[in-house]
Amino acid sequence: MADVIEVGAARGDAPPPAANAARRAASAGRTRRATPYLFLAPYLVLFGVFGLLPIILGLWLSVHQWDFQLPNRPFVGLDNYKQLFSSDSAVYGDWWESVRATVIFTVLSVPLLVVVPLGLALLLNRSFPGRTFFRAIYFAPYVLGVAVIGLLWRFLLDANLGLVNRLLGAVGLPSDTPWVTNMPWAWISLVGVTVWWTSGFNAVIYLAGLQDISPELYEAARMDGANAWQRFRNVTMPGLRPVLLFVITTTVLASANMFGQSFLITQGTPGTETRTVVWFIVEEGLRNNNAGRAAAMSIVFALMLAVVSIANFRIFRYKED
Amino acid sequence: MIQNDMSRRRLLGLGLGIGAAASLTLAGCGGGDDSASGPAAGNGGKEYTGPKVDLKLWNGFTGGDGDIFKTLVTQFNTEHQNIAVSVATYQWEDYYNKLPGAASSGNGPDIAVMHMDQLATFAARGVISELDDVAKNLELSEADFAPIVWKGGLYNNKRYGIPLDMHPLGFYYNKAVMQRAGLDPNKPPTTKDDFTAALVEFKKAGVQGFWISPFQFTGGMTFYSLLNQWGGTLFDADVAKATFNSDPAVEACTWLVDMIKQGHSPANVGQDAEYLAFKSGKNAFTFNGIWQINDLKKSPEVQWGVAPLPQIGSKKATWANSHNFTIVKQRANDANKVAGSKVFINWLSQHSLDWAKGGQIPARKAVVESAEFKALPEISALAPELEYAAFPPAAPGLGEVITTFYNSFNEAALGKKTPKQALDDGVAKANKQLEDNRKKYGS
């Protein structure tokens, strides 16, 4: 603070002959200060229009009973938020059921989506004939849209007509498992399909990370007599840490945002037990025209995810310490 | 799918079959009457004499019905030099999400096709205009339609929709399976006793005859039909309270769930499985929409028939809905466009026989009673259902409440809850939703 005042004072007291130079310097300073903002401008405009503005608008909506077609959109204060937390509101049960569904799916799917692709990447990082082919094969499902994989698996997993149960029956296993209509099978199906569908993506990220680890480190470890497990623990894992942080963070967020799979494969069944938060927000906001309430849900959900992500970063920072 | 009444599946399945007949009457065509064109350049739909207007029309006819619809529009355009209608087709689900936003931003259509149970919501939200003058000027009245379809276009005693058709649930029976079980394939059961007796015969022949789907399509709609057959209702007369946990409703639900317990249906039937099983002869009876007729016609190997739903409860009833034409409110209030829209609606309404070939029962009585319509055997077989079809009531915001109803049935059919428990829970939630709606729409 003191420094700033001194600088200001010095400028103010500058003798007249030096004024021109000072002004030039100040002008150069302004340009220098403006440069980063000029570079940032395109992004800032996009962020402002598509990021910041919607957030502010969302906050605004969330304190109103908002239906953009109705002439009056009364201010309701924190009512929309209160409804999410008071058990006698119409939305309370559905909201927490959807939170529960989202948590279940995230907790079940994230470990698999972190570990399975890592194993896959380690395998595909070795050199063997046909490696490129297998890399393509494992990545292939990710290319398909959720509508395609959703419909595909809904038919394959059909309890009475589906191929999965028929194959299980053919080898003498139970052939009437309700894969998509009852618990716990619905979750097993949703997690299984998601792992099948998206593992390829994380595997590619891991592969890139693995190829960034210097071969000399492995060589040195080998010379020190490290076995495969020790090499993995002490060379591969530390080398992958930033990649792992990225994969875990994005996977947690992706799983928490799951919508299409349960929308198409289980259709929320049984009852609405597999209806996720994002689906419920879409339904409230766009189908039931309760945009205010949906905005409140989005904000509460965003806060939940922020807490999880911060915790995530913390855990990894401690590991580095 | 999101278990919404407007699921696109309903219309995905909606009939296929193209063909605008050649024998079309020219009606409501803009003539050379220069003197009578007031500021509105029209008179509520009889004719349009103003300057050329371009009209946008939105619909959700994504199946083969879309082709027949487009053919009819093309014909209209050639017959009307000063009206050009262009058609945009969306999945119903997207359609209902998109329409309000598009209308309020000025990018909406002039004419919109809408299901009857959506009219109240869109009317209350100010998306669509009143059409009382159209009905009056076209001299359309209840007598021209099945009363229930005609009344369904009303909200707060004002008309918002001109009904085009109705699509009920029908009773499909697999003739080959009936023969295998020693039943007369040309005599589908019409009563509860005959129906259950037939199921016993199927069981003897190793067939689970009547699969109960837990989903809105089509188990939920079957339950809705039977609930009405038992004399129950979804809501009380003012649509203030949900009533689908009444004794008749619980009985109807129990009867369906017992189909699973008695082995006439497998448990955990998946979406569409009951229909696929029907087509492949794995079951014998299924209640499904009239829109499946054209789909079945594409499978000549399936021997099937369709009849009105058998009477299982104390009276006849069946689920049904109806497509209506509506005029979307515009920010720029162009009277010429409105007048042109009315001419189009009138014209298409009069050509609803051709529309029937897309797999719908026309709303107009004269068409239903015509020999040409009777010549469409499967579709006209379901026409008697017009008299007792149970349409969803008209109240704004009812879509989500009806979804709650279907979800309750889902829980009962999947054995998560007893029928009584599932329906009680559903009603408790539905009542809260109805209260929210009252606050919101002030009705």
Write structural notes for this entry.
The complex is a heterodimer of chains A (321) and B (443). Chain A has helices at residues 2-13, 19-62, 79-85, 92-125, 131-143, 146-156, 163-170, 185-212, 215-223, 228-256, 260-266, 277-287, 291-320. By secondary structure, chain A is mainly alpha-helical. In chain A, helix 2 (19-62) crosses helix 13 and helix 10 (228-256) packs antiparallel against helix 13. Chain A is flat, with a radius of gyration of 27 Å. Chain B is globular, with a radius of gyration of 22 Å. The A-B interface holds A 65, 67-71, 88-90, 93-94, 154, 157-162, 176, 178, 180-182, 263-264, 267-272, 279, 283, 286-290 and B 1-4, 96-97, 100-101, 104, 121, 125-127, 211, 214-215, 266-271, 273, 276-277, 282, 397, 399-400, 407, 410-411, 414-416, 429, 432-433, 435-436, 439-441.
Short characterization:
The complex is a heterodimer of chains A (321) and B (443). Chain A is mainly alpha-helical. Chain A has 13 helices and no strands.
Shape of chain A: flat
Secondary structure tally: strands of chain B: 13
Find the structural class of chain B using helix and strand composition.
alpha+beta
Report Rg of chain A.
Answer: 27 Å
The total count of strands of chain A amounts to: 0
Largest sheet: number of strands, sense, barrel closure of chain B:
6 strands, mixed
Please state the overall shape of chain B, judged from the principal axes of the Cα atoms: globular
Order of helices and strands of chain A: HHHHHHHHHHHHH
Which helices and strands, and how do they pair?
The complex is a heterodimer of chains A (321) and B (443).
Chain A: H1 2-13, H2 19-62, H3 79-85, H4 92-125, H5 131-143, H6 146-156, H7 163-170, H8 185-212, H9 215-223, H10 228-256, H11 260-266, H12 277-287, H13 291-320
Helix pairs in contact in A: 2-13, 3-13, 4-8, 4-10, 4-12, 5-8, 6-11, 8-10, 8-11, 10-13, 12-13
Chain B: H1 8-12, E1 53-59, H2 64-79, E2 83-89, H3 92-104, E3 111-115, H4 116-124, H5 132-137, H6 147-151, E4 154-155, E5 158-159, E6 162-163, E7 165-174, H7 175-180, H8 192-204, H9 216-229, H10 247-261, H11 273-279, E8 285-289, H12 292-297, E9 304-307, E10 318-321, E11 323-327, H13 335-350, H14 352-356, E12 361-362, H15 365-368, H16 371-374, H17 377-381, E13 389-390, H18 398-413, H19 419-441
Parallel strand pairs in B: 1-2, 1-3, 10-13
Antiparallel strand pairs in B: 3-11, 4-5, 6-11, 7-8, 7-9, 7-10, 7-12
